[in-house]
Amino acid sequence: MLAEIDAAGQKTARTPLRRKFGYGMPDLPRALASASDDLALFAQAYIRPFDRPDVSRRDPDRRVGSVTFGQAHYYDLPWPTQVLEQLENCPVKLKITLSYFVEPYPLTGSMLDPASYRSFGLRFDLKRRQEGEAEFRRRKNAEMGDRLAGGEADPNWDFGQKAIAAGSLHCDTWSGTAVELASRDQIAIYPVMGWWRDRPGQGRYLDKARYALVVTLEAPEAGIDLQAEVAITARAMVSSRADVEVNVAT
Q1: 49, 105, 118, 122: least surrounded by Cβ within 10 Å?
Q2: What residues of the chain score a pLDDT lower than 50?
Q3: H/E/C letters for each residue in 172-224?
Q4: What are the beta bridge partners of residue 51?
Q5: Do 100 and 209 meet the contact criterion of CB atoms below 8 Å apart?
């Protein structure tokens, strides 16, 4: 499987291989193994994908006006920045998996259009290397709701955002150097279209949805205890009460 994917080269050629192989084969020894240069971060949360912010003047309990996008979640990754910068060109792999369940709309023909079939959709994105936090948030607010984000601006992914947009399990691997990853320390989880927004008469636009996020980092050539370094940074973030930030789309 890996040989075929490596031989495919470009993302376009890899897309049918992902349909053929899925996301690989379960490996129990790999799952049970514990390595200092291989770690996993988990998060589970509720998100409100949509909102109807305007309230009726006559009836404060009734929402009126347009249904908009709701929340985006921003996760600060506990990267030991100085350590990663010192590793310079050491190869690393970052794998992100986002999983959730959707509620299908039981209307004939709705399955032909994913945005009409699903109740909501979620996507993830990683902050670029030369991108500040404010710029990253502005870019995600601008893209929020686009069914296909423009261009392949981040070439280090195995498949790319367009290729993994189907369904409600999104998984991709970013490969690069430790120094490139050092400043890529934030992940955004944001909503895309679904019938909860398109059909306001159903009264579901304020519903919350649950998702799971798994981030794994491999650095087999690092020669350091990566888990220990990340744990130190994570403890510092916890002590400073660095909670998940929730941003309301505008």
Answers
A1: 105
A2: 146-152, 250
A3: EEEEEEHHHHHCCCEEEEEEECCHHHHCHHHCCCCCCEEEEEEEEEECCCCCC
A4: 68
A5: yes
pLDDT of residue 151: 41
Query: What DSSP element (H or E) covers 232?
Result: helix 226-239
> Strand pairing of 245-248 and 50-51?
unpaired
This prediction's pTM = 0.84
Kindly provide the residue ranges of all beta strands, DSSP E only, lying in the chain, ordered along the sequence. 38-47, 50-51, 54-55, 63-64, 68-69, 71-76, 91-100, 121-126, 169-177, 186-192, 209-218, 245-248
CA 107, 109, 111, 115 torsion: positive or negative? negative
- d(Cα 83, Cα 227) in Å, to the nearest integer? 12
Q: How is residue 231 annotated by DSSP?
A: H
User: Do you know the residue count of the chain?
Assistant: 250
CB-CB neighbours of 49 under 10 Å: 28
Count CA within 13 A, CB hemisphere, residue 65.
11
What pLDDT was estimated at residue 91?
A: 92
Tell me, letter by letter, the H, E, C secondary structure of 88-107: CCCEEEEEEEEEECCCCCCC
